[in-house]
Amino acid sequence: MIVTGLRKIESWVVAVAIVANVSGAFVLLSLVAIMNVDVVSRNLFNAPFRGVVEVVVFSLALIVFLQLPDVVRTGRLTRSDGFLGLLRTHRPRLGDALTRVLDGIAFLFMCLIVWTVWPEFTESFESCHFFTPPEFGAPATGNLWVDFKTALGRCDYFGTPGILQAPWWPVRLAIAFGCAWAAILFFFKTILGDTQDTRHVTAQTSGEE
């Protein structure tokens, strides 16, 4: 009964991971489009896209951490698993037990990352003063759009002033979300085992269909 309930919860967690992966793919497509626009405008019109470096940095962080949970789900997180693969082939029970131990360690590491990043996210988000009156600057006017743009200008940001600036909190939120969801998936792998029928690409399996 408990296992059945955990598997139902896991299915919802997996669904969110897939949606996050698709979102990361859309960010990647947008990045490719921006890079192509920069190349064309730079070579044909001698007018490079201003802030392309900042866009790349911002997008890469979003792509990596939005797609991290689905990478964990499918078992394609980069690792050296030659010994583990042999052990699971010749001693399945011992191999499965060791896999669960490693997933449990990965769960702890992901939790540590979330514990480290979350205060940074809250600090950068609170610097915008979306819901609280700012200590300095113009007070709220009551116009939601005007107040929102004013708050964005107060945010802790990265980039180059006058070229492109973006608030830090969306990136830190993506990092916290990606690591938290990866931790949840590692937790289910530790408790329930790896239910995904996946094979890692190794020297032994790279030529198999």
Automatic annotation (TrEMBL):
MF GO annotations: transmembrane transporter activity
Subunit details: The complex comprises the extracytoplasmic solute receptor protein and the two transmembrane proteins.
Bilayer topology annotation: Multi-pass membrane protein
Alphabetical list of Pfam families matching this protein: DctQ
Entry GO terms, CC: plasma membrane
Family the UniProt entry places it in: Belongs to the TRAP transporter small permease family.
Swiss-Prot/TrEMBL keywords: Cell inner membrane, Cell membrane, Membrane, Transmembrane, Transmembrane helix, Transport
Source domain of life: Bacteria
Function: Part of the tripartite ATP-independent periplasmic (TRAP) transport system.
InterPro entries, per database record: DctQ
UniProt protein name: TRAP transporter small permease protein
Localisation per UniProt entry: Cell inner membrane; Cell membrane
Domain Tripartite ATP-independent periplasmic transporters DctQ component: residue ranges: 31-184
Main location: membrane
Regions that span the bilayer: 12-35, 47-66, 97-118, 169-188
UniProt KW Heme keyword: no
